[in-house]
């Protein structure tokens, strides 16, 4: 059964970006076909990428100013298996459970999902988040490695512990919204399953950007957020990872957004 709803800006200088204040409480909406809860995200400007001082930072995470000119709705949590089955009539996941996140879905699969959901649910279209939208929502006004600070514990997210080549931690997905949300009311932005974005894996520019979408001729798509199968450093807000759009895996899922009408 679908989950209940309960589980359910401006540049300061050329070198500094004003933090976006977290709405309190967040404005929410529940999609009636699936029961999927959404949170309203305001337009704003933020610093995308990671500061040079951040542990684990990679060159492709170069910090730069990004402005999102339109508000959007984003899923309060990852798409569950029950919600996927309601829309697609299939059960592709390795781990089974209605309130577990759907996984083993490709970028092409999730494009079919949002198209079908858009047809079932009248109003503005559903789609994948852009890479910029995803990071903006994940940070929720923060500038640290994770939404709550520069460290991430097993009590805060479903991530792996890798020691001497062995996989530790929970070793599987957990029900969505198990852990506390970020300041904007979003669950599992760190860990559980990787989340597809709309973007191809393009290099960041150096100039401020407005509503960027990766449209380069790259063979891979960007995924974000880390997973139960990867260590905490892979779940940093600014980390970029990739897969081919045809790939599936037991730690690869999706969170969707909806345009504001």
Could you explain the architecture of this structure?
By secondary structure, the chain is α+β, with helices and mostly antiparallel strands. The protein has a five-stranded antiparallel beta sheet. The chain contains three helices and 16 strands. It starts with 10 loop residues before the first strand and ends with a strand. The protein is 12% helix and 21% strand. The chain has one domain (11-259): paralog of FGE (formylglycine-generating enzyme) (Alpha-Beta Complex). It is globular and about 45 Å long. The longest helix has 14 residues, at 107-120.
The number of E-state strands comes to 16
Which parts are unreliable, with pLDDT below 50 for 5 consecutive residues or more? 4-19
For the record, the CATH architecture stands as Alpha-Beta Complex
The CATH superfamily is paralog of FGE (formylglycine-generating enzyme)
Share in helix? 10-25%
End-to-end C-alpha gap: 28 Å
Main sheet summary: 5 strands, antiparallel
Q: What string, H for helix and E for strand, traces the elements in order?
A: EEEEEEEHHEHEEEEEEEE
Which radius of gyration do the C-alpha atoms yield? 17 Å
Q: Which class of secondary structure composition applies to the elements?
A: alpha+beta
Name the CATH class: Alpha Beta
Question: What is the oligomeric state here?
Answer: single chain
CATH topology: paralog of FGE (formylglycine-generating enzyme)
Shape: globular
Average the pLDDT over all residues and give the rounded result: 91
How would you sum up this structure in a few lines?
This protein has 261 residues and is of the alpha+beta class. The protein has helices spanning 81-88, 107-120, 131-139, and strands spanning 11-13, 16-17, 28-30, 37-41, 44-48, 64-68, 72-75, 126-127, 161-163, 166-168, 194-200, 209-210, 221-224, 241-243, 252-253, 257-259.
């Amino acid at each position: 059964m679908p989950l209940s709803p309960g589980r359910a800006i401006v540049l300061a200088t050329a070198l500094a970006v004003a933090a976006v204040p977290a709405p309190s409480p967040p404005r929410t909406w529940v999609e009636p076909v699936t029961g999927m809860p959404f949170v309203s995200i305001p337009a704003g400007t933020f610093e995308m990428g990671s500061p040079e001082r951040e542990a684990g930072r990679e060159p492709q995470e170069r910090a730069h100013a990004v402005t999102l000119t339109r508000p959007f709705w984003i899923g309060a949590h990852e798409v569950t298996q029950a919600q996927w089955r309601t829309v697609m009539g299939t059960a592709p996941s390795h781990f089974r459970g209605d309130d577990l996140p759907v996984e083993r879905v490709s970028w092409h699969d999730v494009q079919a999902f949002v198209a079908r959901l858009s047809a079932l649910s009248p109003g503005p279209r559903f789609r994948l988040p852009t890479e910029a939208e995803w990071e903006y929502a994940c940070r929720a006004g923060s500038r640290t490695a994770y939404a709550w600070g520069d460290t991430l514990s097993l009590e805060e997210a479903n991530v792996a512990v890798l020691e001497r080549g062995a996989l530790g931690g929970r070793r599987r997905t957990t029900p969505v919204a198990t852990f506390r949300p970020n300041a904007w009311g979003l669950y599992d932005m760190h860990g559980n399953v990787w989340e597809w974005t709309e973007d191809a894996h393009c290099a960041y520019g150096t100039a401020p950007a407005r509503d960027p979408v990766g449209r380069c001729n790259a063979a891979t798509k960007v995924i974000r957020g880390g997973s139960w199968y990867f260590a905490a450093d892979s779940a940093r807000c600014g980390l970029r990872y990739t897969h081919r759009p045809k790939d599936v895996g037991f730690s690869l899922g999706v969170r969707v957004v909806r345009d504001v009408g």
